[in-house]
Amino acid sequence: MNNKKYYIFEMNMTTLNVGCIILLMIMMIISIFIYPSFINDVIENVNFLFFFVLYFFYMILHEIFHSIAYVIYGSDYKKITYGVCLEKGVLCCLCKQNVDRRNILHSLMFPLFYIGIVTYIISLIFRMPLLFLLSIFNISGCIGDIIMFIFILRLDKNIQFSEFDDPVGFAIYSDRDVSNLNHFGLRYIESTNELKRCDLKKIRVSKFSFIFLIILLLFGTLMELWR
Fold first, then answer.
1. Model confidence over 52-89: pLDDT tens digits?
2. Domain spans in the chain, listed from the N-terminal domain onward
């Protein structure tokens, strides 16, 4: 008899946003000690408007790295889909098949390590303020990946991880009841015998999204005028 169920969890966006800001501040403080002139170098050498545009493509690269790890560790590339949910402030890479624990753990850490930590070290060695700033923002933006990574480390090795049409939700397929396993930044939703996988809506946009993007562009423009 199959006692396995899908236990659905959702990330708390308020917690993630606050955590992202805190991690960004920590990275900034660490960077000031490691690279004392980095603030001056950034102000003098980085075009902020260009940075915000480039950072958007860096976030796309972040999702591509998730998908690369999925495929390397056994997922079918045809099951991988990408999307943008601007109203929740996220880009997403979803693998619409059950993957083992090893697969998802590597996928979660791929962007953090290769275009976060590695590029951070490279930018320190060669004094590259633009790459340095991109790396810091990417590391802080990995807060959701870090929270999920720690959560999945707590689970049995035989669990499977699954995603569906929700950029901030996921399911754990397990024969053990994990609904009462509290974890920072995550909220248990429900359990089900079958996971419905709807077609991902590629782009979801809200009025808030346009306002937020306009604010970012204005901020970048004002920073350039101020210099």
1. 889 889 988 999 999 999 999 999 988 898 877 766 66
2. 5-226
